[in-house]
Amino acid sequence: MRHTILLFVFIGISLCVVAQQKKMDSLETLLTNHKELDTIQLNLLHTLAKNYSDIDPKKGLEYANRQLALATTLNLKDKISEAFINKANNYLTMSQDSLALKCFYTAYDIDVSINDSDGQGVTLYGIASIYQNRGDYHNAIEHYQKSYKIFESLNSHTKMAAVLNAIGICQMYLSDYQRALETYLKSLKIYEINEMSESTEAAICLGNIGLIYNRMGKNLKLGIQYHERALKIHKANGNKFNEANTISNMANAYDDLKQPEKAIELQQQAYILFEEVGSKRGMANALTNIGIAYTKIDYNKTLEHLKRTLPIYEEIDDKYGQTIVLQYLGEALLNLPETKNNLLESENYLRRGIAISRDAGYLQAESDMNNLFAELYTKKKDYKNAYSYKIEAVKLHDSIMSQENLEQITRLEEQYKYEKKEADIKIQYEKEQALAQAEIERQKLIKTGYVLGGSLLLVFIGIGVFFYKRRRDAIDKQHEAEYKATVAETELKALRAQMNPHFIFNSLNSIGDYISKNDTSKAKTYLSKFAKIMRQTLEHSNENEISLEEDLNLLENYMQMENQRLGGKLTYSINVDQHIDKEAVLVPPMILQPFVENSIWHGISKKEGSGSISITIKKENNMLLCIVEDDGSGIQEDENTLMNQKKSLGQNITQKRIEIINKNKNTKGNVTVQNKANGQGVKVEVRLPLEMAF
Asked: What are the two backbone dihedrals, phi and then psi, of residue 574, each rounded to the nearest 5 degrees?
């Protein structure tokens, strides 16, 4: 999985007013006309200072300093604390974290002295945000939780939601995706209950949910939809800083969708907006993501951009930013022409990066760098270390992307959608019931008992029909949610079955056997192919469809590995109809692998002498016909019943995947398995709907 800098967005607790330039102009006019040094002028300065923090922090800082001076003159301690908080928020936007931290601590001391609980909660939130900026997520969560308890005791629901959003960001960067999504949804519900669905705060939650999909590489198009919803709200509210964050995150999703030019274009737009608001961290993040996007185009440009940003992250003490830049510097050097200096420099960057990621608990970054170390040591012909790093990378990845976590995330999402629909139905019903009751009361004053009774009867019939229809719609939605959850679980099982455990176990044993026999040539060849097929499988595992060319390449790598393990007794051929554009046709990833595997292990391996497998791809009406044939031992008559009862896990899941495709796309895909007419081998036919990329 590619690992870009995903830009989290804070919900500033001290900001309760939407930042709009037109409104700012009106407030500045009022301030100019008000000459008295009183609380009215103080409140105007406060509003301007806090609202300018997201659109022009230098100007916001000027107003905060004027606010501090006037509050000091008037000897209003609570207002002095507010001024320091405003200064801190403007410093944060300008990435001057040390100055912001001093201001927050000063405000906190004042709030403690005057027993201001709300102020203490706000300053603790601000202090936590600085730890978050520095990548110290555990410390940040600890301070956020203290802040949350204060706001909970005060029943300050919107501030509780803001803190939950920030906690979710920390959990996301610690790769605890299930808990992060649960926290975001809890925050979003608070805003919806308080009729703030179109607010900046709700938009930030929507964007951060989109980040979950970016981080996981799961359903990136759905993640982009969340970002687009958030971007629309931020543009309407005139919030340039949040707009820049959202555009940058959308760009990362397009980069993961293998559209680097689109990603670079959007990152450049984000950079301009960050530059306008004076956010040094935002500018550095955009440049970093441009460099990462260039890994698909030009590694020299990757080095050029990332070497510019590394000193900035070190200056602002952003450990997460340092980790990602070090990782991609190491990868870029590893992919440039192999020289002693390039390998040495790559190793130095990766060692610095993996040390930071282990210390800070960045599991995904640590997994990615272990994979890079495996490639590095393979190039250095140190296969023992390459093997060790590859095993560690697989362990870390499995701990993050476990089947249980993915299924739980899917359930949380569907449960949220269902509960939101139920809540909307209930609210609408209660509103209409209240309107009906008001109408009944009015009729009591002007109509006779007979007319009143008839009206009541009609109203209750109408309400009953309305409630029945709403209830029926809710049940339909629930069934739809259950079906989507079934689809998701089946797809997840398919991903898990793509590279079955006995294949991985046997492959690793083979590598270990080559190493123990000091057969470095075969170990190098086998390890290289194994690393390649593992990487291809992980890259495609989160995609519903890939190009036919990519799938056939992966399948060919798999057969090459199996051929080496069988001592060269396997030959194969792949024939694609000349009228089929392999790059344009889309297929579910690894759809044919279970059948090729069965041909090898139940047909070719049991046959004396060599054996062959033929794969043919052609069009048949509006379907794609995929044929797998072997000349193995075939299905014996006395084994036929047993095989039907004990199909491989891969074949069962493939059948379910095709059933789901048929239901979603109203097609008639199918799978048939039978002995060949001459009795020598098995023939499998897989029919899929013909899907084109463009």
From this structure: -125, 115
